[in-house]
Amino acid sequence: MPTLIIEKNEKPGDSWRNRYKSLHLHDPVWYDHLPYLKFPEDWPVFAAKDKIGDWLEHYTRIMELNYWSSTECTNARYDEDAQEWIVQVIRDGEPVTLRPKQLVFALGVSGYPNVPTFDGAESFLGEQYHSSKHPGGGDWTGKKAVVIGSNNSAHDICADLWEHGADVTMVQRSSTHIARSESLMDLALGDLYSEKALANGVTTEKADLLFASLPYRILPEAQIPVYQKMAQRDAGFYSQLEAAGFELDFGVDGSGLFLKYLRRGSGYYIDVGASQLIIDGRVKLANGQVSKITGNAVVMDNGTELEADVIIYATGYGSMNGWLADLVSPEVADRVGKCWGFGSETPKDPGPWEGELRNMWKPTNVENLWIHGGNLHQSRHYSNYLALQLKARMEGLPTPVYELQASNHTR
Fold first, then answer.
1. Which CATH architecture fits 121-175+278-313?
2. Domain 5-112+317-394 belongs to what architecture?
3. Which residues of 127-159 are buried (b: 16+ CB within 10 A; e: fewer)?
4. What is the pTM of this model?
5. Per-residue pLDDT tens for 67-118?
């Protein structure tokens, strides 16, 4: 099937290379293989971001993908008469018009960075930026850093700043689920994605089918016992975190990390060491809401002032359909509706019940427009189904859709 991938960055993999220096995958290698070309057997269990970037670059060449780098989409609209998209791009500084029959937005698992608005932020005299802009490394000796947020990126960045000499404070505004990496690999992933699983004959392909076979309605029931075991196994660890003032949760129903990921894409940290820094007091902790920002401090709602030379907003990202609002139109973005979550009526995943992830890998309310995303595991597995749907349409095979998902929520 003729396909063209366009990428704004200079090289495949730059989306990984451009993140903070200490970034590693938090999922194990057996969970993260790419389609048709698995990582080598001696690949690190938790690969560094530059290693992933290099692998993606080589993957693009080995798989002979039609890949335009240094190409930015500026606008897209659907031509009803021609039944095709008109996509305007800038390639190496030159305007080019593309006319694909199908348009897939494959932009990861998130939309634009969420940067909260706090009173007085414009008066701050130091640096302030979203976590997506954090370079990592450098010399922070003698600098005071405040990281607003308490999920994966916040922990990684706090650890990175502390390792490079900063006086670091994490601001936790709501409770967070923490899963120790060793326990997560053993209890949650070990039977499907591990050396043990492979020895038992559970290949990546079998594991993907088993993992996808549980409907979301009953998935919490299957996950709750896993995290009850985790809470028991790591009781001492959790007690130490709580003694340090960290507010913990296991999800509103105790179903843990993966359900939080599916429902809202946030609210958790896979611990690879930063939690110990909090336990030991090497990374300080402030709980509550931010009241305002002054020229040299973050002021909490209880009046506490956190002096800062740099403020980093590890405050997550918006829905993927935010990209559609800018590249197509706000009307199209709202017709598609919110992406991700399935209507569980839990925090950040409002009802009604959908039963499937909103708008992912399936026909949307906009003709010939598709959304692809997720982590490496989901991208590997569900890309097959999206590709088959596109191939069938190209071949003119009947592709009846039982029912399009209602757009109950916009952005």
1. 3-Layer(bba) Sandwich (3.50)
2. 3-Layer(bba) Sandwich (3.50)
3. ebebbbebebeeebeebbbbbbbbbbbbbbbbb
4. 0.94
5. 999 999 999 999 999 999 999 999 999 999 999 999 999 988 788 999 999 9
